[in-house]
Design brief:
Layout (H helix, E strand, L loop, with lengths): L1 E4 L5 H12 L4 E6 L4 E6 L7 H6 L3 E5 L19 E3 L2 E3 L5 E5 L6 H13 L4 E3 L17 H14 L3 E4 L14 E4 L7 H8 L5 E4 L6 H13 L5 E5 L17 H8 L4 E3 L1 H5 L2 H13 L4 E5 L17 H18 L1
Bound molecules: phosphoenolpyruvate and manganese (II) ion (MN).
């Protein structure tokens, strides 16, 4: 249930209502907009008398929501959320590029790529240190050493870093990471989501390989329900019967998510297609349909990359994609 409070409602009046609701085991999520305050009532609201709430002097309107996700729901929070990643804003109407290799491989590699993608307009550096690989015999990432190299690259370029956490036992190592990624394979690792919800770190939550939009939103709800509101969603392709591409990029998820939730939505055309020449058209299409950002894999030497070389762009190719995407962004704005 959501209740929109009248303009001019005082804090004591609002607290009085919240107090009354809490006595009925209803917790309240407060969203303050420019003109209205929206209260999201969380708990078993079936027993709440909607007419009684409607009749209160401070209440403008009240309605029941049937969706099981509350905190991520745009109905509770009509304005777009803007997530601040160490000074870089996502969801404020700008187009952010997160670029970098699939995996951190060496100091020279990560710093070299970081400088180049920054020159092309990237606002954040990605790079995996803990890698979820389908085969246990494949390169598993440089782990803690990889994180140190990312910190080094941040020091040199100033770009905030984005990297994936696979196991909550490593959370201490991520204290200095700007933006923690939860990969597709962990989208429904609920214990991990809950622990990340207890932090204040921005979380980049990728859609699972075979998850619906509703399940995706419920996973974001896990993080937010623990108190962490800094969540960004990433569409990265889903598994379908199609085998010509690594996954099927569900671009329709972008406008749908933007309608259902106030959280920013970005797109990863690299993992979605698995093919480097497809990254550009899909990045441009993602920009056109309203994505708040694009995450792209960029490698200095794709044929020799330790991971995902076939879908990685060279820095020069990335430069061309970024230039075109910024032009598309101007057209659609
Ligand atoms: C990645 O971003 O490197 C990655 C493993 O992505 P996903 O979880 O989407 O497969
Ligand atoms: Mn990858």
């Amino acid at each position: 249930m959501i209740a929109v409070l009248k303009n001019g409602t005082t804090k004591p009046q609002m607290d009085h209502l919240i107090d009354w609701l809490s006595k009925q085991n209803i917790s309240v999520h407060i969203s303050k907009g420019d003109s209205y305050t929206v209260l999201g009532l969380i708990g078993d609201t079936a027993k709440i008398d909607i007419d009684l709430i409607q009749s209160l002097e401070i209440v403008e309107s009240v309605k029941r929501v049937s969706e099981p996700y509350k905190q991520v729901n745009r109905k509770f929070h009509p304005e777009n959320s803007v997530i601040d990643v160490s000074g870089v804003k996502i969801g404020d109407g700008s187009l952010n590029f997160i670029a970098g290799p699939c995996s951190v491989e060496s100091e020279e590699q990560i710093i070299g790529i970081a400088k180049q993608v920054k020159d092309s307009g990237a606002t954040m550096l990605r790079g995996g240190a803990f890698k979820p690989r389908t085969s246990p015999y494949d390169f598993q990432g440089l782990k803690g050493e990889g994180l140190k190299l990312l910190f080094e690259a941040r020091k040199v370029t100033g770009l905030p870093i984005v990297t994936e956490i696979m196991n909550i036992n490593t959370l201490d190592l991520f204290e200095d990471v700007d933006f923690i990624q939860v990969g597709a394979r962990n989208m429904q690792n609920f214990d991990l989501l809950k622990e990340l919800g207890k932090t204040k770190k921005p979380i980049l939550l990728k859609r699972g390989l075979a998850n619906t939009i509703k399940e995706f939103l419920m996973s974001a709800e896990y993080i937010m329900s623990e108190g962490n509101e800094n969540v960004v969603l990433c569409e990265r392709g889903i598994r379908t019967y199609e085998t010509a591409t690594r996954n099927t990029l569900d671009l329709s998820a972008v406008p749908m998510l933007k309608k259902l939730t106030h959280l920013p939505v970005i797109v990863d055309p690299s993992h979605a297609t698995g093919i480097s020449w497809m990254v550009e058209p899909m990045a441009l299409a993602a920009t056109a349909c309203g994505a708040d950002g694009i995450m792209v894999e960029v490698h200095n030497d794709p044929p020799h990359a330790l991971c995902d070389g076939a879908q990685s762009l060279t820095p020069e190719q990335f430069d061309s994609v970024a230039k075109k995407a910024f032009k598309i962004k101007e057209v659609v704005d």
